[in-house]
């Protein structure tokens, strides 16, 4: 188990370094922050002073080494717009984003898993076809379209919920449902496929032939084995929730990290954008690391194969 954990941690560390490098290079190739922040009419001397004060006049490799050295010391930079620590600005927005993504994830899991299980247990019935039709419709509709449609129906036409802002808990309902519906549709399809594959295995038929009640066959045999492939998509969903929050928060004027990212990219506030990208990268790496560890717990064959590769 220790070898399995060490290999996954090493891979996660390499992924984080690549994310930091990618974010650093791409942001410096997308435009000059001096022109965006100071404006196109500022004198050349002002541009030169701004670039020098933020180290933007140095060669790119030196900028990267300085930035990476600062990260190792816990310094993630300051906002170019107001001089505040970038991490402080981002962490102020994180609770509001979590207020959307955590309930949306629970919505994904509860609705998606139940719908997928019900569809598999009623394979080729009208229930199965209805759930799969809704599922296909759910994950093919872009999040911004889903959000606009929900806002048009529940906020504009029926006036049941606010169309934006974060003044009350009702303001979070439409963003949560927007994020949750798309994720639930994806999980439902994967859960159905995994359940159908497991239900067709010989040990399921053997357990049924021995007289084991069907609900015990499903709970004790089918569900644990179907959970292994389903974990993969759930790990990806954690990352997609954060990415989807960028669009959803902009639609519903929710002041989380998604909206902060859009504003910081527009203003070329490099330090803030880099912190957000690193945070999103860490979230995705952590989610996939947890999925890998749960794989090892649910399927001991993975740990055995890992030891065999190390010994060979």
UniProtKB/TrEMBL annotation:
**What is a single molecular function from GO for this protein?**
dipeptide transmembrane transporter activity
Q: Which organism is it from?
A: Rhizobium oryziradicis
Entry keyword set: Cell membrane, Membrane, Transmembrane, Transmembrane helix, Transport
Where it sits in the cell: the answer is:
Cell membrane
In terms of domain of life, where is this protein from?
A: Bacteria
Report whether Transport shows up as a keyword of the record.
yes
**What is the name of the protein in this document?**
ABC transporter permease
Q: Where are the transmembrane segments?
A: 12-31, 98-121, 133-156, 168-188, 226-252, 272-298
What PANTHER family is this protein classified in?
Answer: DIPEPTIDE TRANSPORT SYSTEM PERMEASE PROTEIN DPPB-RELATED
InterPro entries membership: BPD_transp_1_N, MetI-like, MetI-like_sf
- Listed GO cellular component terms? plasma membrane
- What membrane topology does the UniProt entry give? Multi-pass membrane protein
Q: Which residues form the ABC transmembrane type-1 domain?
A: 94-295
Q: What family is this?
A: Belongs to the binding-protein-dependent transport system permease family.
